[in-house]
Amino acid sequence: MTVAPQWEQVAGGIRAQVESGELRPGDRLPPTDELREQHRVATSFVRQAILALQAEGTVRGVPGVGVLVAGSQPV
User: Fold this and answer.
1) Contact 4, 12 (CB under 8 A)
2) pLDDT at position 3
3) pTM
């Protein structure tokens, strides 16, 4: 059995929260440090997960605001 890389595990956790409705369009993701502590991974893995989620359209970065779940109205 192959274990997914840590960044994929973080991305999967965030994706699951979006799919379950725990995080809804327009909700802001917790800060990187909080995600790092929640998932017990290095900051680089959190950043890589967020980049992957942005590439697939699940989240979007808004300068001066943070990372939001996609599907929201522009800020």
Assistant:
1) yes
2) 85
3) 0.88
Q: How far apart are CA 67 and CA 53, in angstroms?
A: 10
Query: Residue ranges of the alpha helices (H) in 1-75?
Result: 6-20, 32-39, 43-56
Rg from Cα positions in the chain: 12
| Residues 59 and 67 sit within 8 Å (Cβ to Cβ) | yes
Which two three-digit tokens encode residue 24? 């809804």
Q: Contact at 8 Å (CB) between 29 and 66?
A: yes
Structure-token match 């379950």, residue found: 20
Mean pLDDT per 10-residue section of the chain, whose length is 75 residues = 90 96 96 96 97 96 95 55
